[in-house]
Structure formats: C-alpha cells, structure tokens
Specification:
The complex is a heterodimer. Chain A has one domain: SH3 type barrels, CATH 2.30.30.140. Helix content of chain A is 31%, strand content 33%. Chain A has helices at residues 62-75, 77-93, and strands at residues 5-14, 19-24, 27-32, 48-52, 55-60. In chain B, 39% of the residues lie in helices and 17% in strands. Chain B contains 16 helices and 13 strands. Chain B is globular and about 65 Å long. The N and C termini of chain B lie close together (9 Å). The chains are: A alpha+beta, B alpha/beta. The interface between A and B is large, with 43 and 56 residues. The structure holds iron/sulfur cluster. Iron/sulfur cluster binds next to helix 15 of chain B. The site of iron/sulfur cluster (SF4) has 14 residues of chain B, from helix 15.
C-alpha cells in the first residue's frame, strides 16, 4: 500500500475528472493523474508514473520504471498491488442485495 | 542462498558493502559498539530482511526498525471503531486489504466480514467513490489509513466527492504523519539513535524539508532513500560518511523520484482537506502531539467520525493491548521481535496477536518470514 507501482499511461478516459488508463504490468487500470498534471493532459500519454493507490504520484523514466518493477517483484509487492487491484474490481462488481 | 548474488548488480553491492565496512572501521563502529541507524519506513524494513542487509553489512551497523508501517501503529480502539461502523446495516465499509487482519479488541475486520458485515477490500479510495455513485441508497465509508504517501489519495477523493455533491461517501480518517513520531523517539532518553534512513515515497509527496529538524535541532544525519537494496546500501553509506565527517544534514539519495519540495498538487490537497489533531494515538508509542490528521470543518459532510459519532469525535476512548504483547517495546527498539514471549507461539502471521505481525512491513512479520532461513544459512 505504501510503495506504489510503475505504470504506463496509455489513454485519457475522463479529462474533467483527470482520469487516465494506465498499463500496470499488463493490467489496465483507471487512475487519477491529478498529482502529475502540469500541462495538457494529453502530454501524459506514453509516460511512466509511480502509481500509489490509484493516483499517479510521480513521473519516472522507463529505466527507473523497469528497475522499480523488478525490485517490487522481488519483494512480492508487485503481486500484492495487482491482487489489490483485482480485489477492487471485485468490490465494484459485487451487488448490494445479499445483506437484506 | 547467497544474498549478495541476488542483487541486480552484485558488483555494485559488494563495492558498497566494502565501503560501508571501511567507514565503520574508520569511525570505530563494532558489534559491541555499533552505529544505530533507524530505517523509518516499513517498506525499508521489509527490503532489509528480504535481502539480508542486516547480515551483509559490517557488524558495526545495527538497524533499528522504525514506526513507518501504518498498519502496525494502528491502535486496537480504531479497529474496534471500524468494526462498529462496518456493522451498521446501511454501510458499505471499504478498506485497503492490509488492514483486514489487524486484531481489534473483539474482532478484526476480516472476522466482522465473516460475521456478515459488508466490508470490501479496495485498491484505491477512487473505488470507494465509484461504489458510492453506484449505490446511492447505501452509506459508503472509506477507511483512510497511512502516511503521507496515501494521504493525498483520500484528500483528492474527498475534493472530487465534494465537486460531484455526493452525500453518501465519507472517510474515516486515520492518516498519520511521519515527522512527529521521529521527534518523539529522539526525545526519548532511552533511545540511542545515530542516524536515519528516511522514507523515499513519503518525501515524494512532502519533499525533504520536513526532516530539517532532525539535522538542525538534534544533530543527526538523515538520508532519504529509495527502497531497492542498492538504494538502501548507498543510503547507509551516506549516513556513515556524515558521521565520519562530523556532519548532520538532510541528504536525498532518491532524487530521481523525490523532488526537494515534493508534489505540490498533493501537498495543496492535503492542506485544503485536512488539519492536525491536537494529538493522536499510536500503537506502542502512545499519544503523540500533532501527529494525526482530521477532516476540516468545510468538508465535514465527508467525515465519518461526524456522521456516525465515532472515533475522536466521540471523546474519551481507552485501549488495552493484548496480554503478553510486546509490540511497544519492539517498536521503540528496546526489544528484538524474537525476545517477545509470544513470537512464533501465540503470535504468527496467520494468527497475529500484535500488529507488527500483520503486515510484511512489520518488524515481527519480517523476522518471522526471513529470520529463520537466514540463521540457518549464514551469508557468505
Ligand atoms: S511477536 Fe506479536 S505480540 Fe510480540 S511484539 Fe511482535 S507482533 Fe507484538
């Protein structure tokens, strides 16, 4: 939860909410780019960012992204982050009826 | 397992280890009279154990594991409050998965979920926001937990909820800040610390200046570090070099990610949404002045404490740590995890008694996970 994971910003999904699609180790996730937005949002496409709990917190270069990912895999933190994303998707899909 | 071989760049690791040894010898640090270096961040604790850095470095370096694992410093009373909110029939309680197994006085969130509470693990507070949009007839509460790395995410989510005028989204804010407990530890007369390795991802948000007091007021070196093993070794060397040269400064080893002044958007969002509580309780460390955040008056509608009358808003609370738990002593460096009578017996990662056993960033869990293997197979 504290370390964050590198992802590549591939598509802008909602400019008004500052949301974009990031590719995180092959998994596509909608993230907020608000913290790293300094110019036009389109400029972010193709860039790598450190993503913390759904927010792009720092722009990094590709080499740094690769090195960070490797270290995260070693620590088991990359797998944890990807599992957390899957859990999040599950939470959203879950209905509300079962608690009647 | 030969740990130095596991590094991405074993040659660089060996060179750094040699320089660390050289510097230790130069300042006369030995196993008997070591230099005490605290790594503040739980991510660093995990990396130190994963790579066996405590065994690879010269015996004159002794790592003290700091309070930088948000799950580990979460008091039981706050878990109880989470459970209380989550068990309301109208509530969807959302949380990072890390918090699920932290024991409360009666139960953990995991147990509350098994008992029927609608508790959902989310990746981001943005997931909670989306749940609120999709379930207008339910109250969606997000458990805001963590240091400055996660604080901006809840601040920005609250701002977004406010822009959209959502009325069924609140945050149960338990965000804490890194500098105050460091100050509390430095003020503790029993603490013997010679220097610090600072949390890189926290500084990515707040920059390096919040640590100035460590160097200026307490005369201790601090090096803000990345979490890769080579980053850590280099940072330890930088701390030792400062000691050798009689300097006490804030240095930034992780400048490829950490700007001196942090991330301005995040800092502004935190400032807009949160204010300091007069004091906040930390597991093992007690109440620390100005160390926790609460939601400002203007965002009151998004404050779960206000909405449900729970938490610090409800007034006095009393907490008792479980019988035989030595988390407090371990957290302040007075005891090694293995000296706790519960370690590996009444307390394991599967059935944690204390919070330091819950997360892989907790000192006890790290000892448990990596300690045994390394003891059996000494590093080259
Ligand atoms: S072994 Fe368990 S009870 Fe003992 S200090 Fe560690 S976490 Fe606390």
């Amino acid at each position: 939860m504290c370390l964050g994971i590198p992802g590549q910003i591939v598509e802008i999904t909602d400019e008004s909410r500052m949301m974009a699609l990031a590719d995180v180790s092959g998994v596509k996730r909608e993230v907020s780019v608000a913290p790293v937005l300094t110019g036009s949002i389109e400029e972010l496409i193709g860039k790598w960012a450190l993503i913390h709990v759904g927010f792009a917190m720092a722009i990094i270069d590709e080499e740094e992204a690769a090195a960070t990912l490797e270290a995260l895999h070693d620590l088991g933190e990359a797998q944890e982050a990807l599992e957390a994303m899957a859990e999040g998707d599950k939470a959203l899909a879950q209905g509300t009826e079962e608690r009647a | 397992m030969k740990y130095a071989e596991e590094f991405r760049d074993p040659k660089a690791a060996k060179a750094l280890l040699a320089k660390i040894a050289e510097t230790c010898d130069a300042i006369g640090a030995t196993k008997e009279k070591p230099v005490y270096i605290m790594e503040i961040c739980g991510g660093h604790t995990h990396a130190i154990f994963r790579y066996g850095l405590d065994k690879l470095t010269h015996p004159g370096v002794e790592f003290i594991h700091g309070p930088g694992c948000p799950v580990c410093v979460l008091p039981m009373a706050r878990v109880d409050e989470c459970v209380e909110i989550a068990e309301r029939r109208d509530v969807i309680f959302t949380t990072f998965g890390d918090a699920m197994r932290v024991p409360g006085q009666k139960k953990s969130l995991m147990q509350a979920k098994a008992d029927g509470a609608d508790i959902r693990m989310v990746y981001s507070p943005l997931d909670a926001l989306e749940l609120a949009r999709r379930n207008p007839d339910r109250e969606v509460v997000f458990f805001g937990l963590g240091f400055e790395t996660t604080t901006p995410s809840t601040a920005l989510s609250i701002q977004q909820a406010s822009r959209e005028g959502l009325t069924n989204f609140t945050v149960f804010c338990n965000h804490i800040t890194v500098p105050p407990p460091i100050k509390a530890l430095l003020d503790d007369p029993y603490m013997m610390l010679d220097g610090f390795v600072g949390p890189g991802h926290v500084s990515m948000v707040i920059g390096t200046h919040p640590y100035d007091f460590i160097a200026e007021d307490y005369g201790k070196p601090i090096v803000v570090a990345g979490f890769e093993p080579l980053d850590l070794l280099q940072s330890v060397l930088m701390v030792l070099t400062q000691i050798k040269e009689g300097r006490a400064e804030v240095e930034n080893q992780y400048s490829r990610v950490v700007p001196e002044h942090g991330n301005p958007v995040s800092v502004a969002a935190i400032e807009d949404v949160y204010e300091m509580r007069p004091s906040f309780e930390w597991r093992g460390l007690g109440e620390i002045d100005k160390s926790g955040l609460r939601i400002r008056e203007k965002y009151r509608a998004y404050d779960a404490e206000e909405k449900f009358g729970i938490g610090y808003a409800a007034g006095e609370r009393s907490v008792q740590e479980p019988e035989g738990c030595e988390c407090g002593a371990v957290m302040t460096g007075r005891m090694k995890p293995t000296q706790c009578p519960q370690f590996g017996k009444g307390c394991t990662p599967e059935m944690p008694l204390g919070a330091l056993m819950v997360s892989s960033e907790g000192a006890c869990a790290a000892y448990y996970q990596y300690g045994g293997a390394r003891a059996a197979e000494p590093a080259e």
